[in-house]
Amino acid sequence: MPENAEKSAPPAFVPDWGDEPCPKPVLPAASPEQTAALMDGVRMRENPAEWAFVRLSKLIEDFEKGLDKDDEVGARIVGLPGDGTMSIEDVGFWGPDFILFTGKNADGKPVRLIQHYGQINVLLDVRRRPEEREARRIGFQLSEMVRKTDKK
Question: What is the pTM assigned to this prediction?
Answer without folding.
Answer: 0.64
